[in-house]
Amino acid sequence: MTEASRLVRTAMRHCERWLDALGERPVAPPVDDDELARAFDDDLPAEPADVHAVVDDLAARADAGLVASPGPRYFGFVTGGAHPAALAADWLTSAWDQVATSYAGAPAAAVIEDVTARWLLELLDLPRTSSVGFTTGATTANLTALAAARRAVLLRVGWDLDDQGLAGAPPVHVVAGEQRHSTIDGVLRLLGIGAADVTVVPVDDQGRVLADAFAAALDARPGPALAIAQCGNVATGAFDPIEDVARAAAKRGAWLHVDGAFGLWARAARGLRHATRGVEAADSWAVDAHKWLNVPYDCGFVVVRDADAHEAVVRKGGSYAMTAPRGRRDGSHWVPEFSRRARAIPVYAVLRALGRSGVDELVTRCCRLARRFARAVAHDPGVEVLNDVVLNQVLLAFPCDGDERRHAARVIRAVHADGTFWAGSTEWNGRLCMRVSVSNWSTTEADVDRSAERLLAIVAEAREHDVS
């Protein structure tokens, strides 16, 4: 046995202990920030150390600061846990250590990426001739798609961004909803599009853009335009009225991009697909795989209808870069990164393991469990369900006779300290709320019931404290 294989076995023992403990480990135990920092605050070693001791020590020092986010009662940030098939494939990906820049550097990775791209287009029923790039997540997917969009809409008005650059270019008008994800604004800044060129459209009480207002905003300014719609509001799970938005974008000649980080997976579930009606008319889409598909972080993908526009904005190479044989794929031609991990391999593995029906069942079950959570707490006068639970998101407020914000903060802190489950906080219409996101393949009815029961007990304790 080589030293490397012996070291992998050392690491595997720690992985096994971690995975075996996920079901009962406190989801996010309170962390002594200073103690955790001191645990790693060493001087840079002057000499080599025993690698087995390094791995053992790393596992021991990190343990107090690890969140059981892959576990069944972690309901934060729409985070999925790594499915066993995806996790095992990810370990293989690390061991193989393929440079997925080009076909020449990693033929197997390139072929797997090509097949996985085709499967994803079929599963999500997006135009089959679209191009697909495997990114670090939906943020980079949004960046790639909107970079292609900016270049394309400028070309339509005679401005060649490749030759002329951005300085002096006609302004690109962007229309997006008030409840767009914050990363959209960051991406637009990276693309040189400022707030003055973004028209923000009002939304309804579920966070969906108002279709008439969206159309009016698109028509209000001439020139190149980008329309951005959302599948899956991060607080409520609601979908923008994509059909109406798509019609308005088509009439205006705008590029329509859909941020579907987690909500686009509803297209893979027969009972939920109706919510995404019209999304196939868009020009580009961004999706996360490390959310509902439950592959390890980090992995997302971008889909662009116009493959030429997609490749033109990110294609790269050099005299030393060997071009793929005809009909084969160079993965770096579809994403910003040149050096890149073969991140399509875990996606391939989980799609093989689940199949079309398994993905349908996973998405459907998570949504059913979200509704179960909402029903379990809605009867309590100390809990208010603020959203229509149309997907996997449950938005909770904690009304009280006194200072609601202070009371809600007490409830959320107590949930985090308790460790039975974890859910994040968010602002919604001026209220401090809790956001419960059910996205994990391993979550069961028992996990939901246990979490809901504990939440009600914590709410009662907080109410008693605030009254006294």
Tell me the structural class.
alpha/beta
Work out the helix count.
14
Which band does the percent of strand residues land in? 5-15%
Runs in which pLDDT lies below 50 for 5 or more consecutive residues are none
Strand neighbour order, sheet with most strands: 1-7-6-5-4-2-3
Distance between the termini: 66 Å
Radius of gyration: 24 Å
Please state the overall shape, judged from the principal axes of the Cα atoms: globular
- The ordered H/E elements are HHHHHEHHEHEHEHEEEHHEEHEEH
- Biggest pleated-sheet summary: 7 strands, mixed
Helix content: 40-55%
Structure description:
The protein is of the alpha/beta class and 468 residues long. It is built from 14 helices and 11 strands. Strands 1-7-6-5-4-2-3 form a 7-stranded mixed beta sheet, with helices on both faces. A 4-stranded antiparallel beta sheet has the order 8-9-11-10. Helix 10 (242-252) links the parallel strand 4 (225-230) and strand 5 (255-259).
Give the arrangement of secondary structure elements:
Elements: H1 3-21, H2 33-40, H3 51-62, H4 84-96, H5 107-123, E1 131-135, H6 138-156, H7 161-164, E2 173-177, H8 182-190, E3 198-201, H9 211-219, E4 225-230, H10 242-252, E5 255-259, E6 284-288, E7 300-304, H11 307-314, H12 344-378, E8 384-385, E9 393-397, H13 404-418, E10 424-428, E11 431-437, H14 445-467
Parallel strand pairs: 2-3, 2-4, 4-5, 5-6
Antiparallel strand pairs: 1-7, 6-7, 8-9, 9-11, 10-11
Helix pairs in contact: 1-3, 4-12, 5-12, 6-8, 6-11, 9-10, 12-14, 13-14
